[in-house]
């Protein structure tokens, strides 16, 4: 009888934990939807121009693929700058 009582208590605890997790998931989902609403609106505004943007990006990218030297230098400088900024922010706790 004692084992049944312990199992029933454990089951009740687990069910309460599951209910708490469900409620937490529901609130987090609504917060996530509210936070991403601006991005969704902008994405839907740009969606009709997606094909044109892809074509323009391809046209811009072709010369960069033919002459990789400047792109590689720019990428390495950008990466170095990003790492330095990240380290400075962590150093000064910004």
From TrEMBL:
Top-rank taxon: Bacteria
Protein name (database record): Cell division protein FtsH
Naturally occurring in which organism (per UniProt): Halomonas huangheensis
């Amino acid at each position: 009888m004692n084992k049944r009582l312990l199992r029933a208590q454990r089951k009740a605890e687990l069910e309460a934990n599951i209910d708490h997790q469900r409620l937490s998931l529901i609130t987090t989902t609504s917060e996530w939807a509210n936070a991403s609403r601006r991005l969704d609106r902008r994405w839907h505004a740009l969606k009709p121009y997606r094909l044109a943007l892809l074509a323009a990006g391809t046209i811009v990218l072709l010369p960069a693929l033919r002459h990789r030297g400047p792109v590689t230098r720019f990428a390495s400088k950008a990466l170095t700058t990003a790492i330095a900024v990240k380290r400075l922010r962590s150093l000064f706790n910004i």
